[in-house]
Amino acid sequence: MQDAQDSGQAAQSAQAVDADISNIWETLDGMIDGFFAVVPLIAIALVVFVIFWIAARLVQTLIERIAGRNVDSGLATVLARLGYWVLLIIGLMVALTIMIPSMTPAGLISGLGIGGVAIGFAFQDIFQNLLAGILILLRQPFKVGDEITSGESPARWRPSRPAQPLSAPMMAFG
Predict the structure, then answer these.
(1) pLDDT in tens, 23-72
(2) How far apart are CA 30 and CA 18, in angstroms?
């Protein structure tokens, strides 16, 4: 009697395992079908992103040439790189929207939520320094030969030489 119950339980568990395996195959089949349905969207998104990347490179070159004639070369480089990255980020958002149609750039930006605030605080100093550097490039308060004193350490403003690497003294903290 005990053997009959054990064999009945074994048959039921074998059927349960067969049912689970068929569910696994159905799930895998659905995933594979879904992947092949999305492949064209991924390809289109890649093409769109490459087009935006090429456009960003062209805009960067164009800004460097046009701004290089009118403003300082350092400011032209900063403006060109800003234009490049803005266009590249827009291209990334467009490509993501093509690849994942349910996601929109507005949804992505609003999805950042509190994370956006944390990222803003983390990059606050970086953006302050970036804007300060742009203001220095715009106003050009220093000229070659000017002496700048900060605290007790004077420094002389001199042109940089591309052939020589820029170096700074290293200090050991113990």
Answers:
(1) 888 888 888 888 888 899 999 999 999 999 999 999 999 988 887 777 77
(2) 18
- Mean pLDDT, residues 82-95 taken together: 91
Q: What type of residue sits at position 96?
A: L
- Please tell me the predicted confidence (pLDDT) of residue 166: 47
Q: How far apart are CA 27 and CA 21, in angstroms?
A: 10
Q: What is the pLDDT of residue 38?
A: 87
Hey, CA dihedral for 15, 19, 20, 22, is it positive or negative?
A: positive
CB 147 within 8 A of CB 157: yes
The 3 state secondary structure assigned to the chain is CHHHHHHHHHHHHHHHHHHHHHHHHHHHHHHHHHHHHHHHHHHHHHHHHHHHHHHHHHHHHHHHHHHHHHCCHHHHHHHHHHHHHHHHHHHHHHHHHHHCCCCCHHHHHHHHHHHHHHHHHHCHHHHHHHHHHHHHHHHCCCCCCCEEEECCEEEECCCCCCCCCCCCCCCCCC
